[in-house]
């Protein structure tokens, strides 16, 4: 029981660390969020932004990385 809890806490720690790195590094990547296909609707008193293509690309990359991780874990 303790070994499972320890593994879970270590995994949570690594995930939080990776999220922190992403938050730290993301503003330094100039093209992230400004790809062709990302919708940016500007009005007189409002702005609506939908990073559709950025989300699709990040989703594909994360899917590939997680599948590779799962493949090597077995």
From TrEMBL:
UniProt xrefs under InterPro entries: DUF2905
Transmembrane segment boundaries: 7-26, 46-69
Q: Which UniProt keywords apply?
A: Membrane, Transmembrane, Transmembrane helix
Q: Name one Pfam family in it.
A: DUF2905
Among PANTHER family, the record links this protein to: BSR5223 PROTEIN
What protein am I looking at?
DUF2905 domain-containing protein
* Species whose genome carries this gene: Candidatus Abyssobacteria bacterium SURF_17
Lineage from the top down? Bacteria, Pseudomonadati, Candidatus Hydrogenedentota, Candidatus Abyssobacteria
